[in-house]
Specification:
The chain is an alpha/beta fold. The chain has helices at 69-82, 98-101, 104-107, 118-129, 134-142, 147-156, 158-161, 233-243, 262-286, 292-298, 313-332; strands spanning 17-20, 25-30, 33-39, 47-53, 59-62, 89-92, 113-117, 170-174, 179-182, 185-191, 200-204, 209-213, 251-254, 336-340, 346-350. The protein has a domain at 17-261: Metallo-beta-lactamase, Chain A, CATH 3.60.15.10. The protein is built from eleven helices and 15 strands. It binds zinc ion.
């Protein structure tokens, strides 16, 4: 019954079964633990890894995909093929992003629950309640982003337009260390703020299996951006990486794309951000008085666009957010300072001393 096949693109998968057809992409990775590939059409992330744990009394689905027809179709087809009964399905979310949470209220059992960290849950509600999300806008406007571009971004970014309906289900707010039983396993909540303020990984200690969400991705770098209410997202992220650097992990199950060797990847991500921090600092040193949009425009990005001016607006917003996280990190440590000009926009300078 157990076909132990190596995953073609990976070192540490214990793959029991792989089924592939044009409709669904399902892999049984470990006893009763499945991966369902949910396509994200037109999105650079390409695919979301949704994980499913089959249990005796209930099943647990970890992350879902955007609230969009092709995502729902693929996820439902996958769940059907595994033989999941919708009525006994709980949903567990690694974080609030819509590519993970978008379908949660549509695929959770009617009497069942959606688990998410309390901090991300509060943000989900906050984003819903704020019809004109000024509290998200404001920082970007004061950093040189134009209101027109921001409005276009909110109209077109699937993170905003394909979000779950957080009024349509019952939530269980999670805290660091909370344990969730599923399929004979015990999932331990490891809160790793950074990618979002309430971002979580889920860890099976006995099996050393880690659902790493978007905290540790292998062939892409997790986006770290400014968040309302978080003074130092990048500092939080780096601390989260360091906190679990030595976690014994046999198999990492990331939110997108391929897996790899956990500890090696965490070390790479730490080095990556040290480099990016130096890059942002050097730009401010060389060009004192720029605003964050201008600094972002001088940083290097892995995006197929002829120039900063031709960046798609959503990508521009991501880039500026990531630049802000790096500037905030230096500001928090007194290495940079910002002065608000008569135009109401913040300009960055090196802080001597
Ligand atoms: Zn994410």
């Amino acid at each position: 019954m157990q076909i132990k096949t190596k995953h073609p693109s990976d070192h540490n998968y214990l793959l029991l079964k792989r089924r592939e057809n044009t409709e669904t992409m399902i892999e049984e990775l470990y006893t009763n633990i499945y991966r369902i590939g949910v396509p994200l059409p037109g999105n650079p992330l390409k695919e979301l890894n949704s994980y499913f744990i089959k249990g005796k009394e209930s099943d647990l689905l970890i992350d879902t995909g955007f609230r969009r027809e092709p995502c729902l179709k693929a996820l439902q087809a996958g769940l059907e093929e595994i033989g999941s009964d919708p009525a006994r399905r709980d949903v567990l979310l690694t974080h609030l992003h819509s590519d993970h949470s978008g379908l949660a209220d549509l695929v959770v059992g009617r009497e069942r629950k959606v688990f998410i960290h309390e901090t991300d849950l509060a943000l989900l509600h906050r984003f819903r309640e704020t019809t004109l999300p000024e509290f998200r806008y404001q920082r970007f406007i004061s950093e040189g982003f134009s209101r027109e571009l921001l409005e276009e971004m909110y109209r077109t970014n699937p993170a905003m337009t394909e979000a779950m309906d957080s009024t349509a289900c019952t939530f269980v707010p999670l805290r660091d260390g909370d344990r969730i039983p599923a399929g004979g396993y015990m999932l331990e909540t490891l809160c790793v703020p950074g990618h979002t303020p309430g971002n979580c990984m889920f860890y099976l200690r006995n099996e050393q299996i880690l659902f790493s969400g978007d905290h540790v991705l292998f062939d892409i770098t997790p986006n770290i951006t400014y968040w309302p209410g978080a003074a130092d997202s990048l500092g939080d992220y780096i601390n989260s990486l360091k906190r679990y650097l030595d976690l014994p992990v046999h198999m990492t199950l990331p939110g997108h794309r391929q897996t790899g060797i956990y500890k090696e990847r965490v070390e790479e991500l730490l080095v990556h951000h040290v480099r990016r921090l130096s890059e942002a600092y050097a730009i401010v040193q060389k060009h004192p008085g720029l605003n964050a949009c201008e600094i972002a425009g001088l940083m290097k990005w892995k995006i197929r666009a002829a120039s900063w001016e031709t960046f798609p607006v959503v990508q521009k917003w991501f880039a500026v957010g990531e630049c802000l996280a790096h500037l905030d990190y230096h500001m928090q440590r007194g290495r940079l300072r910002a002065e608000t000009g008569s135009d109401g926009i913040r300009h960055y300078y090196e802080n001597p001393g």
